[in-house]
Structure formats: structure tokens, C-alpha cells
Amino acid sequence: MTQTTLEGGAATIAAGDAETPKALGSADILKVLACLPHRYPMLMVDRVEQIDADLSCVGIKNVTANEPHFLGHFPGNPVMPGVLIIEGMAQTAGVVCVLGKENKEKPSLVYFMTIDEAKFRRPVMPGDVLEYHMTRISRRRNMWWYRGEAKVRGELVAEAKVGAMIVENS
To answer: Which of 2, 69, 93, 160 is the most exposed place for a label (fewest CB within 10 A)?
Structure first.
């Protein structure tokens, strides 16, 4: 039986008595696209960095003025919709769920299950680099729950708890 633990800031995979460190990794846009079914204009994460198994990661979204939601939200004062920030958190968590699952043979789908305790602190505008800092709260079978903090230049702009479920393709 494999168990993931956090010791001294590094993830380890314990199999019986032997422990092997799990290296921090990253997922470029190609790996993100391989993990998620989302495509433009609904893809809300460009890359995922600092992946620590399925325990934590940081998703990166470069917010640009040519994104379609800015046409109507709001003309003359473009503000990224909060629901899309939460979607970016969920997509970031989805990438690490897919990358961290034990059975890597079959492709899988990630479904967004829950949003709790969402709060929005300040607007996100074109030109911002949005960071989704995701930390696993819990995991049960094929379901994961994460706490997310969205930050721009180190400042908290939004936060929420999100849940996801992996369903195997047939």
C-alpha cells in the first residue's frame, strides 16, 4: 500500500518500510492540455509549477486583454470574472490530481464537485499574472479537496475551497 506524507516540507512516498522522496515538478502547457479536457477560451491555467505530488502546487495564468470575457466584463474597465478565477483554481487542482493518481494507464476526466468559502479581495485585470496556490485538504478514493489562494504580485486576490473527482474514461 502506498501512502503520501509530508515531512519537513518534502513529500515522500512510503511503500512498506522504504521511503523515496517525490521530486517537485512542473507541467508546461502541453502537459496541462494532456491532463485537462479544457481548451480556449475555457482553459484558465497556462502552466503548473512547484508540483509536490498531489499535496500542493502553483498554477500560473497570464491574464491578457484579448480574452473574450473582457468584451462584456466590463467595457472600458476590464475585470476578470471571479467565477473564472475559481475555475482556474479547480483546473490547477485537476492537473495535480491527474498527474498524482496511481493508475496512469487510462486517460481520465476531472469533474469539479464543490466550491466552498469563496472570497474575492480585489479585481484581476489584463496584464496581471495570476498564481493559483493550491494545497490538498483531503483525499478519499477518486475525490480530492483543495484550499486555493489566488495571488497577483504576492497579494491575495481570491480564495476558496474546491473539490474534484476523477472518472475513468471507458
So the answer is: 2
